Amino acid sequence: MICVNEVSFGYPHRPLVFQSFNLVISPGETWAVIGPSGSGKSTLLLLLAGLLQPQAGLVTAKGTRLDRPRPRTSLILQDYGLLPWATVRENVALGLRIRRFYGPDGRHAPAGTRLSPLSMRMHVDHWLERLDIGSIAEEYPGHISGGQRQRTAIARALALEPDLLLMDEPFSALDAPTRENLQNLVVQLAAEASLTFVLVTHNIEEAAAIGTKILVLGVPPNSVADTISAPCAGNVGYRGSPAYQAICTCLRQRLELATASNAGSPQAPVFGSPNHPGGDGSTGDSRYESH
Amino acid sequence: MNRTERPARQRYVAPLLRLGALAALALLWQLASLALDTPVFPPPSRVLALFITELPGPLGWHFAASLWRVTASILLAIVTAAPVGLVLGQSKRLYEVTVPFISLLHPIPKVVLVPVILLVLGVGELPKIVIVATILFFQILVLVRDAAAAIQTELLTSVRSLGAGRRALLTFVYLPASLPAIFTAVRQSIGTAVAVLYVAELFATRLGLGYYIYLQGSTLFDYPRMYAGIVAMSMLGLGLAATVDLLERRLCRWQQTT
After folding, report:
1. DSSP summary character for residue A98
2. CB contact under 8 A, A83 and B173
3. Does position A182 have pLDDT exceeding 50, yes or no?
4. Closest CA relative to residue B178, chosen from B53, B82, B76, B81
5. Least confident stretch, A255-269, B68-82, B159-173, B224-238
6. Measuring CA to CA, which residue among A83, A68, A96, A66 is closest to residue A157?
7. N or C: less crowded end of chain A, CB within 10 Å?
8. Is the predicted pLDDT of residue A220 greater than 80, yes or no?
9. Which comes out higher in pLDDT, residue A231 or B169?
10. How many helices (H) and strands (E) does chain B have?
11. What's the CA dihedral at A69, A128, B179, A71 to 10 degrees?
12. Is the dihedral of CA A104, A77, A144, B254 positive or negative?
């Protein structure tokens, strides 16, 4: 799905954030990216979105080099990126309106997908109802709660029927019950649509609860992808399980280590797997794999 | 008091306060007129009676001419200044390069340009419209530029990720984001624009409130009619401000608090 190949990237007059960095994200995988502030989490997401270009190496999506945002990728940012002057309905419809604005040119919108105003309205109505924001469809973002804004941003992203969903700390400004509720909803929606899903977070519990693969970034430059596998993440009852607790503990240690040095770990543990305590067939044996 | 009563009450309070202020002004005017007892300062009752009788006649034509000029000036200023402001607001380098020029030109009282503009553009309608438009131009330019520059990078990134290129960003982000700035600029400049319109209408025209007021006051010495012209000019400013408020309420609904 996404291949980050020998990528080097840095902002002008600052040290490199990534140096010869490699990462492979397979279709349908749910990734959480975690790391200390300034480790390059958001930068990686923007590279995957095609909004930043690497200085060396390349990022490909389905074998095509990413030199601009691709129509089938949706991005949700921390502050939701909603237009303050547009209603919830207009915000949800924004991506579709942009596609209609350019037409199905294959660059801004997928080729061969022409939307009539009626089908667009029905599509928007579907996502408004699916995200339970139909009752506030005519409200402006400034007049609704943070959770409702996040639901609007999710509806806008999913209305484009993406195959890759990228989220940058989307739940950080929400209270705990709303956050958990939306985390579950997003995981469920991503699974329903077989989306490849990448979530950037600084929250250990969130990364552990959502990511079946977790990428830990350290102090830049990042050159080795330090990943942890947790195949059971996202399953019902996973939160609070011993495997989840073990992942949280491991992430805490990794982050402390990552903050201390960026040596990177050549080995990545798999939690919640048949080979790890708390996994389906606990054996007490921990397996490490290289990435 | 419950939540539904409050807005309804507020709706009536503001107009009543405005009417009260107008009544107080008329009373002061009446008292001053009685105290001074001079033809140069007629009582408001006489001026108002003349205003009402003259408005469907000659005063109405002068009012319409001034209204056309100031409306055309506002539109001319918007279509010239807003695009420049949008371009400068999107480019940090252009913004920085043009700051000294704008800072130098903006404070110049535009009324000093009246003779120059009349010399360059002649004596028709255009110079009068251009003179008033120059006042609004810099105000709109600066406010639109700052509004465009203040758009959060995250918002632009988010809309770009939806597939928006430069044209779509302009349509869906920059233009709506600059609307409140345009309304603010026009509202702030209406007073000065109407004042400069008076000066512009002193030259080479026989139509417009500026001409009417000057003719009645300085040539015919008909002070009640002169004051009726002044009231018409105030009404012009008031009407424009009310129109701007109404349009802003309609087009910038998101700014209204619940």
Report:
1. H
2. yes
3. yes
4. B82
5. A255-269
6. A96
7. N
8. yes
9. B169
10. 11, 0
11. 10
12. negative
pLDDT at B246 over 90: yes
pLDDT of residue A235: 78
Distance between start and end Cα atoms, chain A: 17
Q: How many CB atoms lie within 10 A of CB B71?
A: 15
- The domains located in chain B, with CATH, are 64-255 (1.10.3720.10)
Q: Band of the pLDDT at A264, cuts 50, 70, 90?
A: very low
Tell me, yes or no, if B153 comes closer than 8 A to chain A by beta carbon: no
Q: Kindly tell me if the per-residue pLDDT of B6 is higher than 90.
A: no
Which chain A residue has its CA at the smallest distance from B253's CA? A85
pTM for this one? 0.81
CATH fold for the domain made of A75-161: Rossmann fold (3.40.50)
Contact A18, A9 (CB under 8 A): yes
Chain A closest-CA separation from residue B171 CA (Å): 10
Q: Provide ipTM, 2 decimals.
A: 0.81
Residue of chain A whose alpha carbon sits nearest to that of B164: A98
Give tens-digit pLDDT for A74-120.
999 988 899 999 999 999 999 999 999 988 887 787 877 777 889 89
Return the CATH fold of A25-41+163-291.
Rossmann fold (3.40.50)
Per-residue pLDDT at A287 exceeds 80: no
Contact A81 B254 (CB under 8 A): no
Q: What is the pLDDT of residue A291?
A: 29
Q: Does residue A280 register a pLDDT over 60? A: no
Suggest the residue from A73, A98, A136 to mutate for an interface test with chain B (most B CBs closer than 10 A). A98
Q: Is B235 on the interface with A (CB under 8 A)?
A: no
* Pairing state between β A268-269 and A288-289: antiparallel
pLDDT at B249 over 50: yes
Average pLDDT along chain B: 91
Give me A209's structure tokens: 């609860």
> How long is chain A?
291
Residue A199's φ and ψ, nearest 5 degrees, are: -115, 125
Instruction: Report whether A152 contacts A141 (CB < 8 A).
Output: yes
Task: Determine the residue of chain A that is closest to B179 in CA distance.
Answer: A85
Kindly list the domain boundaries of chain A, sorted by start residue: 25-41+163-291, 75-161
Asked if the domains A25-41+163-291 and A75-161 are classified in one and the same CATH topology, the answer is yes
Express as a percent the part of chain A with pLDDT over 70: 89
Proportion of chain B in helix, strand, coil states, percent, rounded to 5: 85, 0, 15
Within its chain, how far is the Cα of B215 from the centroid?
Answer: 24
Does residue A239 contact residue A230 with C-beta atoms inside 8 Å? no
**B160 vs A156: CB contact, 8 Å cut-off?**
no
The number of C-alpha atoms within 13 Å of A168 and in the hemisphere containing its C-beta is 23
Phi/psi of residue A5, nearest 5 degrees: -120, 110
